[in-house]
Specification:
Elements (H helix, E strand, L loop, with lengths): L1 H17 L13 E6 L2 E7 L8 H9 L8 E6 L11 H8 L3 E6 L9 H8 L3 E4 L3 H7 L1 H9 L3 E8 L4 E3 L11 H13 L2 E5 H7 L16 E5 L23 E5 L5 H9 L3 E4 L9 H11 L3 E4 L3 H9 L5 E6 L10 E2 L14 E10 L2 E9 L15
Parallel strand pairs: 3-4, 4-5, 6-12, 6-13, 8-9, 8-12, 9-10, 10-11
Antiparallel strand pairs: 1-2, 1-3, 7-14, 13-16, 15-16
Helix pairs in contact: 3-4
Length: about 375
């Protein structure tokens, strides 16, 4: 038991190192590595950015010498076995003389899965797999989806009361959750390459949609505004996402019903516009997902209101869900629900979260996980909304 705790401790060191690449490695994964000799860490490394050296090579370079006999390498993800831009890490490990490697997660890429392990074993290296596997897999939830599905991870976030409401009947919603939970949202904003809201949120809250973390400069992901009728462009006073210093990173997702004049107005401001084919005034999320894949956008964090999130679920395009709940009860059936428009007549037909993670954030609770849809999602046409 003591030895297991020691091994887990080294892998947790590697996981903590990997987090230094948070939001900076797309489309590559975050990876951390430590080299252990005589029961202590003597060198470490992490993957810092796309195109940069991988964690294993950084750790070996940091060691600066041949490892001692009996040295072990702990790494959060299966070492790559293909040359790529930086060379195969398996070959660097073999050349180093290390005779034991402990790995957390297997490479999710079906073309590479297990090949790194096989190459190392062929070279006579002892390979131990699956240490803290769930944590190592969770580290790269965006990369894993992208590399397996060839499409971006579409995730949604909601801050709710204990009875599942995101606002009072008057629209009052600031703030349901406390400062710790709201700070955590900024941490996830820094991870995702894109953030999305609906026209209603832009008109009501005029949000900045940037990641503002202590000790770091303000960072702006791609900011997607879903506005099928371009009603956010009607007023002379433009929303800040169209005029601030990051306006060129704003993309308005609309339909042919929005009006070419408004499209030209956005272009004149330096704002990008994606016109998605649609027979209605609501942009297709499937089309949006394809456009993101073509642009290399690996993940989008939806922070829109109930309408946008409900439409995302109605179209079965919601991959992942972050639910922040506060110890508040409204007890009002007229208060705004987080989701609506689905006719869930049996529990067996409910949307469920799998691979669930829990975290206490001050007085609030975060529950997050992959969304698992039933075989058929029945939509209540009476409440199906248009943007």
């Amino acid at each position: 038991m003591k030895d297991a705790a020691i091994h887990e401790g080294f892998m947790r060191d590697a996981l903590q190192l990997a987090l230094n690449g948070w939001g900076r490695t797309h489309p590559n994964p975050m990876v951390g590595a430590v080299i252990v000799e005589d029961g202590r860490v003597v060198a470490s490394g992490f993957h810092e950015r796309d195109g940069g050296p991988h964690a294993e090579r950084v750790a070996l370079a940091a060691l600066g010498r041949a490892p001692k006999r009996g040295a072990s390498l702990y790494v959060t993800l299966e070492p790559c076995s293909t040359e790529g831009r930086t060379g195969a890490c398996t070959e660097a490990i073999i050349a180093s003389g290390i005779r034991k490697i402990v790995v957390g997660a297997t490479d999710p890429n079906p073309a590479h899965c297990g090949r790194g392990f096989a190459r190392l074993r062929e070279a006579g290296i002892e390979v131990v797999t699956g240490l803290l596997e769930a944590d190592c897999v969770d580290l790269n939830l965006i990369f894993n989806h992208w590399i397996v599905q060839g499409a971006p991870l579409l995730a949604a976030k909601a801050a709710t009361t204990l009875d599942g409401r995101i606002a009072c009947r008057t629209g009052d919603s600031q703030w349901i959750t406390g400062e710790v939970a709201r700070a955590d949202v900024h941490r996830w904003r820094r991870l995702f390459p894109g953030i999305a809201v609906g026209a209603g949120t832009v008109l009501k809250d005029n949000p900045r949609l940037t990641a503002r973390l202590p000790g770091e400069p303000e960072w702006c992901p791609l900011r997607f505004v879903f506005d099928g009728r371009l009603r956010t462009v009607v007023d002379r006073a433009m929303p800040r996402v169209y005029t601030d210093e990051f306006h060129e990173r704003t993309i308005v997702v609309t339909t042919p019903h929005g009006g070419l004049g408004y499209v030209r107005k956005l272009h004149s401001l330096g704002v990008q516009v994606w016109v998605c084919d649609s027979n209605s005034q609501r942009a297709s999320f499937a089309d949006f997902r394809n456009r993101c894949a073509e642009a290399g956008v690996t993940g989008v964090f939806f922070e829109g209101g109930s309408r946008l999130l409900s439409e995302l679920a109605q179209e079965r395009q919601l991959d992942y869900f972050f639910s922040y709940s506060a110890p508040i009860l409204l007890g009002d059936d007229k208060a705004k629900p987080v989701l609506s428009g689905l006719r869930t007549e049996r529990l067996a037909n409910a949307l469920r979260l799998v691979d669930v993670r829990h975290e206490v954030l001050g007085g609030d609770l975060l529950v997050r996980g992959r969304v698992e849809f039933p075989e058929k999602v029945q939509v209540d046409e009476a409440t199906f909304s248009l943007d």
